[in-house]
Amino acid sequence: MLRDAIGDLELFIVGLTVSDSVMPKITVILDGPTGLGINECAMISRRLNRRIEERYGEDSVYSLEVTSPGADQPLTDPRQYTRHIGRSLALKLADGTEKTGVLTAATPEGVEIEEVIKQKTKKTTLPAAFYSFGDIKEAKVVISFK
């Protein structure tokens, strides 16, 4: 049903939750190669509402939210990394270490980061290192207000 609502748009599902309450809340989080705008969210929401009503009847009681991941949300799908090439990422690795640096490449297997190390009053950028998605516990885009 959700894939039908997305149609031929170059979007992918990042998250889907349904609350267990009297009036269930369905939250659909989508992303794409260039992000997701309000118009796409509205269009997909209308399509999903139609599909839900066709399947479960017009008297179904639910709340539907179609959205994109917020800027502070971790990257959870390998396809999300490509559009962030050139931006800083903060990685938490499975071994407990943390790395921060510029994303220089993204492949289906992992990412390449030029790590920035702060030493007293100067910053040093290390050569790019590759991290597989299996080694990445969490990745967030570092928001900069320069």
Automatic annotation (TrEMBL):
Domain Ribosome maturation factor RimP C-terminal positions: 75-145
PANTHER family for the chain: RIBOSOME MATURATION FACTOR RIMP
Summary of the function given for this chain in its UniProt record: Required for maturation of 30S ribosomal subunits.
Record has Cell membrane as a keyword: no
Superkingdom, natural source: Bacteria
Family: Belongs to the RimP family.
Protein name: Ribosome maturation factor RimP
Subcellular location as annotated: Cytoplasm
Domain Ribosome maturation factor RimP N-terminal: 3-72
Gene that this polypeptide is encoded by: rimP
Primary localisation category: cytoplasm
Keywords linked to the UniProt accession: Cytoplasm, Ribosome biogenesis
Keyword Lipid biosynthesis: no
